[in-house]
Amino acid sequence: MTGSGFGNSWSADRLFAGPGETRERLRRIDWAATPLGPVETWSVELRAAIRTVLPSEVPMLLWWGPELVQIFNDAYTRVLGAKYPAAIGEPGAQCWAEIWDEVGPLAEQVMSGGAATYTENQPLYLLRHGYLEETYWTFSYSPVQDEDGKVAGVFVATTDVTATVLGERRLETLRQLGTVSTAGGDDPLVDACRAVVRVLGASGQDVPLAAIYLRREVAGGSGDDAADDLVLVGAAGVDDDGEFRPARIPATDVTSRRVQAPGESFEPAGSKAVTEVRLCPLIVTGHAEPVGVLVLGISPYRAFDDAYRGFAELVTAKVSTLISDALAYEFERDRAAALAELDAAKTRFFQNVSHEFRTPLTLLLGPLETLRERTGDELPADQRDAIAAAYRAAVRLQQLVDDLLDLSKAEAGQLLPRPEPTDVGRLTAECVSMFDSAAVQAGLALRADIDEGAGPVEVDREMWVKIVLNLVSNAVKYTRSGSVSVALRQDAGRLVLSVTDTGVGIPAEERERVFDRFYRVEAGGSGGVGIGLSLVADFAAALGGSVELDSAPGRGSTFTVRVPRVPAPDGVTPRADDRPVGAVTSFGDIDQREPSAEVAPSTEPGADRRRILLVEDHPDLRAYLTRLLQEQGWDVDAVADAESALKRVAVRTPHLVLSDVMLPGRDGIDFLRELRSEQSTARLPVVLLTARAGTESTIDGLNHGADDYKLASYSQNRNVKLREIAAEVVANFTAGTDRE
């Protein structure tokens, strides 16, 4: 390797002259004992390469000769770690034995005359600090030729990119933690914790094992023993039979600390033994003590340096935030569930109140209606007036009961429309006509402008009628003089109902609140509980529409309801009732019209009287129903409870059973279920009778095999009167098969 023209003029002191520890050590090496031989014999090309490497601030290495003997600069000593200074003059394969399978072939490729190589972000596990260290490098191997043009060495320029690669990888882990959702599922807290350990488990190089322990009371545990135990809720990176995962660990110390286990190890699946973990306390706002601990395994291939510690702290902060969010979500979910239960309880309460109110109302309205129907001089005028007043008051009370029930359904999301073919124009006009007398008495002009092309349509009749009645009643109530105008038209596929009055108007500060629950505008001086307009908004929304208000003090108000117009199918005739407002609530402040005549009782001598079993616990109502049914030609066997009824059926089978739903002991549904379970009574006609309003109750009864389900009410304009039930019983079952 002697270079021509240099001879002995190039000594080690001259070639390696200059400051720095590495140059000093290069000068003291006995190069004659290395494959390169004495410095004086080195070629011009070798010396030139050395003069390029040594001054550079970038880590540079020169491999020379077949053995790839190493010469490097000061900057490269950081790459070597504990391999320095022994690496000076050492063959590459000997110095880098742990990675030679990766880098050796690249060097041999260049030495054999191949092209230069460039490698980015190459993972290399270096044994330079007493352990196998995970590192990443970007480097190039360039050939250095001798005077004959042959490759004599390899010039290596390298950059340590470990911090960049680890930083990006850890940042991605933090990003993935940020995508963990705390919403949904039966147990959001546990689900979130398990999602966290799945994310951490996917980052096995930084977190070879992970586990989350929560205090038992936070995790939803129960029991009195060891109440401060931490319960495992999720783990990753540990074999199923590993001893690392006890069901519980004592919560005596959840401060961040290092745990080493000389002689034993935690074995993450597919990795080198983990001998170090960190216990990181999970701090959550609102809790005086940590709610749990995050166990993070430390990679055996990385030192727990400041960057690693910062990553662990960020992971802990993320997990703490997720747990805080999950606890907050659970709190809000439980709060929402509690509110929903309150709403459900309120609905049940209103339904029960409806039942309790309807029974005495039944006993009030039935006799009152009978008295009102008397004509001539059968009753003195003052008594007729008193009866009329009592009847109106009772009807008004029933309206309030029905409104409260509608309100409870609306708040519980149970206000479901039941559309049917309806001549909506005629129905609207007849609703308005109910106020003719009231308008005349108030000195108001009541007008109705109905677009004949508006119907027939598919609409919930009861909801539509309640909308019209509430709006017109409200207009009449708050209009001292002038007029109330009702218009119905179709516009762009929608039904548009507007009610305009020349009343007192509504101030701007109150307009936004008129549809609120229980809010009353005081300007008119009229009574009410403030739910009529609220229900109008609810009914309009249930029909897929909306209600708007245009008003100002002194110029009256216009309420406009817009709902989708769904044409009735061709060939379907809209239902026509004897009273077009048939099954809706009367308004107490509307002048009550004379009811239609009762159905004549079928009590002719010799008539084929049928037997009916009546089951009703209320004695007054039982007696009243008995009288009505007897007037219709039935032999009535009346009992107060289901057990007595079953005994009567066992002795003598009736033609028909008419039973209340709410009975002491066994209720009507259970009684019906018992009848249907016996072959002898499986086909016995059963009609359930109740004062409890609600579609759910009807569906429940029919699902259990009732032939019919009747809502008992004496309201002139609401549901089916008991006397009409009696008439329907006769009509539906007189022709039935004799079951004697």
From TrEMBL:
Residues 352-567 form the Histidine kinase domain. The modification 4-aspartylphosphate is found at residue 660. Pfam families: HATPase_c, HisKA, PAS_4, Response_reg. Its main location: membrane. It is an enzyme of class 2 (transferase). Transmembrane segments: none annotated. It is found in: Cell membrane. It catalyses: ATP + protein L-histidine = ADP + protein N-phospho-L-histidine. Keywords: Kinase, Phosphoprotein, Transferase, Two-component regulatory system. GO terms for cellular component: plasma membrane. Residues 564-605 are annotated as: Disordered. SUPFAM superfamilies: ATPase domain of HSP90 chaperone/DNA topoisomerase II/histidine kinase, CheY-like, Homodimeric domain of signal transducing histidine kinase, PYP-like sensor domain (PAS domain). Residues 611-727 form the Response regulatory domain. GO terms for molecular function: phosphorelay sensor kinase activity. Its EC number is 2.7.13.3. Coiled coil: none annotated. PANTHER family: HYBRID SIGNAL TRANSDUCTION HISTIDINE KINASE C (PTHR43547:SF2), TWO-COMPONENT HISTIDINE KINASE (PTHR43547). This is histidine kinase. It comes from Rhodococcus jostii (strain RHA1).
